[in-house]
DNA sequence: AGGAGCAGAGAAAACCTTTTCTCACTTGAC
DNA sequence: GTCAAGTGAGAAAAGGTTTTCTCTGCTCCT
């Protein structure tokens, strides 16, 4: 047995295929073919090489391999979502989808700095990434960096992209319908909508879907993405004369939180008097409200998974149809509306 | 001018140094030396090569370069902090410190799955990372993966590591002192401490520092890391007979949030009647409380920066002293205590 | 027996860059 | 007019792997 007489092969550096070849008593080419399951050789030889490789702990150098194959099994994820509320679930989905294929992910947070973005893109290209996924915190804004005419494929996940690109985003209208229909199904008749700035595309989508079902008995209340706005909006509604809503559909979970707090301060019971539903299903927020918040989940992890599989397909040269793909939201039922999924 | 007659060099693939050499009418070696500012050659030649390279948009292939230099200018960040509350600031710091050096970061979220961790570590090693930074969500827990005896350096950032390793962590005792001394300075005399599970090292550190200053007039109240515990603890305190605290030092911002909510429900004014201070300075939480929460910031970004620079030094073969490095916390003053930094 | 065909395995090129070595030529000194 | 020293630039090897091509025997058929 030539192999096994060393735990720490004297020479410097990692174990290469050359060491495997020597230990197995074959040439480098034969070793390579044996390990990759290609080429012609005796079954006995192939097994011996494989065994030896395992014994001495050989792992192929991905750099060398990538140099030749022009595939680095690496992709870049570019995001301006510093806080990571949207990007992290997306990232988790991407990673989950790609780890099986041996692909690793460079994460680059570029804030909103075009120069920094440029630097990171160039660094990733230098490292021969197989593709780039652009991600953000807003569906109707682009990253501050030009990703057209890159030598690698690009897909966009939860961020705006150019017309002929592949874009994944949540179906906010469908998500809003889910929420409002749920309220209707629970018997609610006067449903208010307190949401973020009208300048946000998501806000308009959600408000549009809301209005289609709920009508215009209650006006949509646009504001900012903050608890304080939720509280203030409730104050406005309850200082008005006339009938009060029996349900409030909120543009995100922070607003919903403010709404719930304000309702409790007015001794209005949730969900008995008023049902509240949020958007984003930001667990750390939704689970800590009193009562826990029923909320629309945008399925960002699934979105990341799709984006990952798509960039992989593109990297492998498979054709992928361009266009916007809306992925469905789903409703996470907690206690702030009453009811349960079995009802 | 040989260069410039093509926007899209007919052949396939990216632009290599061979193209630069041809376009500049020199050999590959000369081109390389010119671009790297080494070797001997006429100043005119050097400038011409550089100019041509710029014109045709040459960028060296990092894979090829890494193959030779055995430096990939890539590091891995391993974390089990899925939610990213701790890892993201650390990551931002690392990235910020390393981008200037052309180093990119693989982010691998491994949940608490040892098998997944192993896969990611091996993938990173195959890709010849120059080093690995392990990070987590708890100072007294290790990642579920063995990082000893790796062929690359490892540093630990906000997670437990083996005795002879380089570990960066926040100085929680100092942070707690900062908070309590601030309360004392504002004239508070009965300071309570509502915090997380005693099993957490951070909790014991913070509680220890608290007790040293505040004494044992108020017992430390251990619970869970949730708003509900903050509310419940306040209920307990105010249902007891005897003098009530005039300040509450909370183990994290979520607890502080619950405390503030519970105090308001009792019509106890913050900060007039009771000062509240949190820990973590989790902005999205601290800024949305009423009033905004004064909180201890653990300086995770700086921690990441230090970890990044250290792994870089190790990768370059510079000696680095092993041991635990505690990085200082600082106090972010908002309104929940009264007072301002100028006082 | 002579050749076709095939099984098994190695040699060498290729990927792209860096670096060491070598070579040809010029200049200046004696 | 030689020699030494210096200048500018190219040839070649190295890094680890994959892949194509080539080579040597062997079997089997006629």
UniProtKB/TrEMBL annotation, chains A, B:
The keyword Transcription applies. Pfam families: LacI (PF00356), Peripla_BP_3 (PF13377). Signal peptide: none annotated. CDD domains: HTH_LacI, PBP1_sucrose_transcription_regulator. Keywords: DNA-binding, Transcription, Transcription regulation. Transmembrane segments: none annotated. GO terms for molecular function: DNA-binding transcription factor activity; transcription cis-regulatory region binding. InterPro entries: HTH_LacI (IPR000843), LacI/GalR-like_sensor (IPR046335), Lambda_DNA-bd_dom_sf (IPR010982), Peripla_BP_I (IPR028082). Residues 15-69 form the HTH lacI-type domain. This is LacI family transcriptional regulator. It comes from Phyllobacterium leguminum.
